[in-house]
Structures are given as structure tokens and as C-alpha cells.
Amino acid sequence: MRLPLLLLAWALLSVGGTALAQSGADGATAEPAEPAVAAEVVATTELDAEVAEVAGPAGTERATPCPRWRRRLAPVVSLLAGPVVHGAGALTGCHRLAGRRLGLTQAAGLGALIVGGGGLVITGASRKTIAPFTYFAISGIGLFMFSWVADLYAAISDGQARGRPGPNTAYELNVGYRQVHDPQFDHDAFAHVGFGAWLGQQRLFAEVDVALDTDTQRGRFGIARRLLGGTGRGSSLELELASTWQRFGADGFATLTGELSFAGRLDLADFAPALVGSFVEGSLGIGLQMVGYQATGGGVGEEAHALLLTRLGYGVYLGETGEVVLSYDHRRDGLEGGLSTESVGAGNIGFLDLRGRGWFPGAPRWGVEGSITVGSAWIVGASILHRGSLDR
Amino acid sequence: MKRFLPWAVLVAACLRPSEGHVELDDEVGREMAAGSTLTIDGGLGAVRSLEAAAGTVWSASPVLAVDLVPGATPFTLEVRNLPADAELVVDGVTVAPSATPRPTVKVWTLDAGGRLRIAPPDSDTPGPHRVAVLSDIQSAVDEVQDIFGRMNQDPTIRFVVSTGDLTDNGTFDELTRIQDELELLDVPLYSTVGNHEVPGPENWHELFGPFSSYFEYRGIAYSLVDSSNATVDPTELASLRTWVDAHEGETHLFLTHVPIFDYAGLRSGSFRSRNEAARLVNVLAEGDVDALFFGHVHSYYAYGLGGIDAYISGGGGAIEEELDGIGRHYLAVDLDPAVGIEGVQMVRVD
Fold first, then answer.
1. Do A68 and A187 have their domain in common?
2. Touching check for B286 and chain A: CB below 8 Å?
């Protein structure tokens, strides 16, 4: 069973690589996107004329001039027709490669959703097949949603976005505050400290949340090995091993979770130049949560519950100094819990997270991060960031 | 400020999706109409109709204590979903039923109101008895009759308890239909609400009564708790704490629809927050609850949570979990206050 999951993870996270290879077959080059987009920017900004110039014989998806009216119509088409035909906005804006690939991604998403959802229904959510079918279903929804949002992004940005992945640095420190609103628990205020460091292809990370008003603490640490991609914040694939510890002293329990997952980011400039400045993230994995209860005194490890891990996100680079990511995470074992739906789907949904970070242009080693997380609790966070030198 | 109000309401609804159920439970079992007043202790029933000289109740417990002030006499009281041997006692006098159209339906004609107790004569005497657990009928309402028939063959079953999902969507018609089918049972069925009843909470309130309930029968405590939104509302949790604390050391069964933790963690057909789940298990373990019964997953699993025996049983006929060899079933649970739980047996129907 592990092999198909690995392949699925690979497929999800390497759509762009596949697409890039295809573009070579189509006659376009597989050059890094940046020069190509730069050429396109020149082409459109130089012209006040009715028609944008062809960006170049290679390295861009616009092979023919694109009338201004089409570029202006693209966002409208994306909004109206895009929900049904993903890529319609990009195609209207003459981004044929993006349009075609987004359409294919939509089809792949629907296919995965049918396989996953159908499998769940046919097997009655059998525990023996739940993992692959759930992975397929969530990945299908993710691909479907991604192709929809990306089409809107392509139509609006018209390939002109200037956001680029920034560098990773030797280390990064995150100190902040988390305001938690959870009617189930008394904790409200948390102090947060996070730390990450690169050691070659390995990334070490740790974070701690300590409640300031109750006896609740949470810690997480882990190591990730980069399997594909450089050490920057562009396209990459990592194998991540992590552990999370929680203690709810006033509520009489503690948990310890171990997890293994593949996590990756795809810089969408690698998928289609029109999507430059945006990216998708995803992870697939598995975990084991151990629980101990004060009432029984058995300690953590008293009982164990498996955990299926899936996360999907779509983000936008803010220049080279920041980024914003909206993600869905299927796990329900954290402070945020899982969303409520007041429907027959209650209990089967994870949480949403909107997170942005940016570095000060005048003091590039200092930055800020803000987040809003919505599950069975709301968490609003703000942090100050500090990082190592940028000469890596 | 007003423009933020809808958002505030939405946020609150997201975080406490079952708060409305708790509010409805505050009102259940009380009715005033046409000069009559009928109040059921603990909200353990739905007052289906009330007129000056007649009233109809759907019982949510084998033992009812009722305050009745009739608008006119003689007053005809019909109570549905009762044990066959239930008696009505008013001011120490047992009133013979004027009609018993079904074993679980009784009609009494009363010359005056007062404090009524409706229960089997042995209900306060601790002693061994058997109950059945049946959940997750959903769309299989046309096939549930053979399950009821199988239960009727076992005269030792005193009543059925359910964790919900008796219907597919909780519509008024669906709930009415399953109540009609329940009249084929020779014993009553007491249920909390499942996630498939969530779309129509008002219908459940009107037809079945409480979302959460607590009753005692022959020395055994039964807590049926609403987890239809994969959470137990904080107000409901406070009630549960009092029930649990009151019976620490005694035999106590806890029933709720959604498993606190799913046997199969990867599937996680369970609470929306694992931290809330762990906290609830700790509360139940602190109170020495003897067994946990869940539905929602359409199979059968026996495992343990916090040292408490836990059972998932969703064998009422809803889409079955495949590859497990279980199929439709119910549980027969033998109880003895002196011993605790004597045994839990899966009874296959297919």
C-alpha cells in the first residue's frame, strides 16, 4: 500500500515537473520561468498599443499577439466560466499553456475525486482501504480547487506578477503570540517560539506554545530532508519526520504524536509562466498519536490512534520578501481541531489556515508573520521573525 | 457594528454547532395549551399534543415523572414508546390503562391531574436485565422490520437504546415513518440524535424529544449524549459531569453517536477535535463509566478508551462497511448492578 501512496504524493507534488517536460515536447523550452516572464513583462509594458507583442519564440506560452480586450475579459471569464471550465480565464487571456494545463489538472482532480470518493462509498469507508481512497479524494478536491483558483490568478495577474521565491537562510527564529478562542477549553493566550535551521540538505525545526492562562503546553520538533529542489523557498520535495507533544494539565490528558510525511512546494512558474508569483503546497503522510489520561494514570502511551495526514495550500509570493498561503489541513489533533459543518459530514473535516509573512526591505533579516486558523477553535497569531544572513 | 454581527453569529455557530440543540433541550417535555399543563421531569419526552382533555407523549425513558394539570376532566393521556408492563401511578394509586393498542402504547383516562409516575413496577429495584443497542438505520427503513422481528423473539430485552441515525435526513416524514415502524417492536427504543438527524433538529425535538437524556433503570444509569456534530457542547458536557459524578462507582452506560475516537484512526470517523475527545474520555474515566457505545461507523468494533470498554455498533442497515464480514446486527447487553456489565453479544440479523 505504501508504493501507491508514494506515487500519489509524487504525482501531486511534481505536476509542474511533468508539465515542464511536456512543454519541451511541445516545442517550448524548459528554461527557468523568470527570464521568460521577464520577456513577457517587457512585451506588455512597452506597448500602449491595442495588441501586446509576442513575448518571444521560446520560453513563454503566448505564441500569438493577445488583444487587450481579451486580457481585460479574462478575469470576467474566469469568474463566470472558470468554476466550470478551469483554465477558461487563462485561455481568454491568451495563456494557452496555462489554460490547457489547468484544464488537465481539473480533469485529474475530478478523476482522483471520483476514484477516492467512489471508493469510499463502495467500500463503506472500510478501514482496510480508507487511507488510499481518502488520499485520492482529498487530492482530487485539492487539484480541482487549485486549478480553479490558479485560473483566476492567471487571468488577473496576466503573467505580470513580480513575486519570486525568496531564499532560505541558515536559521530562522519566530517569537510571537497566539490568541485562541475555543469554547471547549479555558486556554486563550499562548506564547509561541519557533526555530528552524538548515544543515546541508537537512532542515531542523522546533516550536513551542505555552498557555499563559492555563496549564496547557504544546511542543513540536522534527527533521526534514530535501529530496528535490534547492534550499530556497521555490519548488521542492521533502521527507519530514516530526513529533508533537501536548499537555492539558487542567483537563487531565497528554498526547504524543509521531509522524512521517512527504511535503512539497511547487512554484507555479514551473507549471506555466502565466502563474508566476504563485505556488502550491502539499503533504501526505501518516502518524501515530499516543494518549495518556490523568484518570487512569497510565501515562502517554496508554493507547494509540493512527492519524492520516494531508495538507494542501495555495500561495502567492509578495515580491521577494514575503508570501501568503491559504491551506487546508486534514488533521484534527492540534489546538485548532477540525471544522464543524452541522451536516452529515461532521467530524470528517480538518482546518483552514491563512498565513502571511514578510521581511522588512530596510532590515531584511527581520520580518513579521500573521496567521488565522479556523477549525473547532479560532487561532489568531502574530510573530516577529529573525533570520540568518542572506548570502546562502 | 451591525455589519459585524452576522459574522460574529457565524463564528459562534461554527464553534458551538450543537448549542441550538441544548437550547431546544431546555424547552423539551413542557407544554401549556387549552388550560392544560404537562411537564415531564428531565425533559424525558416530547409532548406531541395537548388539549383541554387529552394529551399525547412520546417517551424518551422507561421511567417518567409527570406533572399534569388538566384543563378538563376526564383527561385522556396517551403515552407512546413505553415498556409493555409500564404502570401509571398517581398519588399512590395505580390507574389501569383504558386502552393498549400496542405493547409500547398505553392510554389512560384520568379523573384528575397531579404527580404521575409512569414506569414498570420493578424499575426502582436494582436487578439484572438485558437491553439491546441498535443504531444507523438511515435509508434502510424498509428492511429494519426483520431486525425488530429478531428482537421480538428475545423476551429478555427490556428496551432498546440507540445512538441515532434512525433516518437519512431527519425530515419530519422520515422521523414519523420510523416511529410508525417502531410500533412493530414489542419494546420501546430510546435514542440520542445522529449526524443524519442534524439537518432537521426541530423535527427531532418535536417528535422524539431530547437530544441528550439521562435516566436510571433497575440500578443502571444511562447517559445518551448528543454528538451529532462530532462534538459535545460545553453546556451538555457540564450536564454529563453531574450525571457521571452522581454515579461514580455504580454501573453507568454512556451512549453517543460519533465515536470519541474511531477504532480506525486513519478513518477518524470521530470527534472534530482529538483534544476534546481525549478530555471527554478522561471525564468518563474519572467517573468510572462502565461502557461506551457509539454508532456512526457501520460495522462492529470492540476496543477500549481510557480503560473503559468501548463498542462501535452501526448495524441498523445503513451502507455497510465492506471487507469486515459484519453486516446488519444489534448488540444484546446483559447488565447486573451487582456485577456491572455481564456481557455484550453481537446478534447478526442477516
1. no
2. yes
